[in-house]
Amino acid sequence: MNELKDQLAINNEIGILGDIKNYMSYSSDAPNKYYFVEDDVFTKKARLLQAIRRWQTGAECGFVERKGIKYYHPNLALGGEQSGCNFIHHRIFEYAKCRVANKKKYETIEGKRLFNNFLSSQPMAFNLFFPLMEIVKCEEGKCRLGAIMADLLDKNNVLKIKYIDEVGIEFIPDYYKNCLNDKTAMDAYFRYVTTNGNRGIIAIETKYTDSLGHNQASDPSLAIKTATELDDISKIFTAEGKEMICKRDIELSQVYRNLLLTETVRLFERLDNSISVVIAPKDNTCNKQDENQLMGILAEQYKYKFQVLSLESFVDTIIREFPNEEIFQKFHHRYLDFRTAEWLIKNYKL
Questions:
Q1: Contact criterion met (CB below 8 Å) for 45 and 345
Q2: Residues 145 and 221 in one domain
Q3: Which of 158, 239, 286, 329 has the fewest CB atoms within 10 Å, counting from its CB?
Q4: Who contacts 71 (Cβ-Cβ below 8 Å, separation ≥6)?
Q5: In this structure, is residue 301 part of a structural domain?
Q6: CA-based diameter of the chain, in Å?
Q7: Is 64 a member of any domain?
Q8: Residues 120 and 158 in one domain
Q9: CA atoms within 13 A on the CB side of 163
Q10: Average pLDDT of the chain to the nearest whole number
Q11: CA distance 172 to 275
């Protein structure tokens, strides 16, 4: 019965899609020349899905401007700062507005991207983790979310997670100069309490279609020193890995800086353990090389400190644990239900 209702919902969605041009790009100097942005297979599907989702909100198509020419892309919206169209609940929109209005000088939250880019991972993180911030306000929610994370990340019971004490979004510590002295941020984090009363942190990097950045900090010397000379951090890397970092055969790109930020936060806050996690759709494979390289230079007993989760498995597990929280089903529909986009790709041979 549920499968039938689900299929009818998709059929209804397909039935009101309208003109394919609603989901195509064009420019102000050639307004009648529509095109699809050149993408890999997964990004094409995701961009098309987010073009559909933007159109379904009623928001006008947004643009970027270069050399006086406006390039309209259907995953961009106009006026999201006022309408909240990029968020799946009005309370998430209110929280996003609050964060932008009270942005600290060192924070990297980008208002335009947050409010108007449907394809961006930043609003996706707000849509996913704000409801979890609300859930851990009660003891039952803390324990249930803790059980989920223990099942997903701690099968060998190294972290010993008992409950999640706090969920946060877009976190750069105010003591960042004592960490890597750059603006590497955690897209989200879970602070947890263990079965024996210790404390730890799970740092999360979320990716939708984008890749982990390959850019280093303008001055990577502190990160290199942290990875190779600070005893309580350098021990997590193999001798070969430390040598490669010292010689700069390995550039400390985003995936490395995320891990190092997590470890320096652990030390600064005197936490007992920490891990760094990447959450991305299973078909976004563009980060595999970086992820595998990092895993390869971690000492065997510390490989648990870096983990990759598929967005699908994370969201599906949350939905199963909190079946009455419709917000997570809305999230799945918004970002992971590709059936309508796949129908367009198949029928229009995109």
A1: yes
A2: yes
A3: 239
A4: 25, 27, 28, 63, 64, 65
A5: yes
A6: 65
A7: yes
A8: no
A9: 13
A10: 94
A11: 16
